[in-house]
Write a structure and sequence with these properties.
It is built from five helices and no strands. The longest helix has 31 residues. 44% of the residues lie in helices and 0% in strands. α2 packs across α4 and α4 runs antiparallel to α5. It is elongated.
């Protein structure tokens, strides 16, 4: 056999250039619970509950983080967005109630009056209308023992 090749060289071809994919905005409502992450933002919360603007963005962000942890997507599915919103509103409202209660006690003490400790007992979700709505929503979830919606 000779050194001559029976194949012709392949001409050099530049690979095609594809445009970069568009950056999607944060997902607000999942289309399918198994493939999306729901992110409720401070702006989302304030659009629904503008009265919480006074709470401040850092505090709201902290309460949103707690609410996201309380409402895992694998349990809450399509209800996660609403659950996070309600639980965050509940937490902020509880904080405001506690601050008002503390201020009231301080005024009573300054006036020389006796004060009683808070008489709240039972499920904290019953202490705000947001908590009650959250509790009602959570009862609509059908959950297996391992925490998955069926």
């Amino acid at each position: 056999m000779g050194t001559d090749s029976v194949f012709e060289p392949i001409p050099s071809v530049e690979p095609p250039v594809y445009p970069a994919p568009a950056v999607e905005p944060p997902i607000v409502q999942p289309s399918a619970p198994s493939d999306r992450i729901v992110v409720v933002t401070v702006a989302d919360l304030l659009a629904v509950y503008p009265k919480f603007t006074k709470a401040g963005e850092p505090f709201i962000s902290a309460m949103l983080a707690r609410a996201h942890a309380q409402c895992p997507l694998n349990v809450w599915g399509d209800s996660q967005f609403e659950g996070v919103m309600l639980y965050t509103a509940h937490l902020i409202e509880l904080e405001w109630q506690q601050m008002a209660e503390t201020a009231g006690m301080a005024v009573s003490i300054a006036a020389g009056q006796k004060t009683a400790a808070s008489a709240r007992t039972g499920n904290h979700l019953n202490w705000t209308s947001y908590g009650q709505q959250f509790d009602a929503l959570s009862r609509t979830l059908i959950v297996t023992r391992v925490g998955f919606v069926v």
